[in-house]
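REVIEWER CHECKLIST
Item 1: Sequence provided? yes
Item 2: Single chain? yes
Item 3: Sequence as submitted:
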Amino acid sequence: MRPPVCFRLDGDPMPDHEQKRAALGYLNEAWAEARHDGVDGDCLAQASLFAALAELVKTYGEDAVATFVETLPVRVCNCEFSIARTRQ
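Item 4: Structure as written out by the authors:
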């Protein structure tokens, strides 16, 4: 699954890595504001996953998203989503 390319005001396409960095920044700000307002982290995580999956289904369809989701257990076990990693 490849997201559509976003364009900057100057008309040049914004590279994927810049889009993802900007999106993560917006999400971190929203997350911090919600936590400040007393919303539990687990509730935020579940709502975020629902919103993300709903957007992916809208963009790519159920079958493509189901195939993508099947890869998540291996990716989680490979620590792709772990912030603090233990080094040995």
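Item 5: Key structural point noted by reviewer: The mean pLDDT is 87.
Item 6: Recommendation: ____
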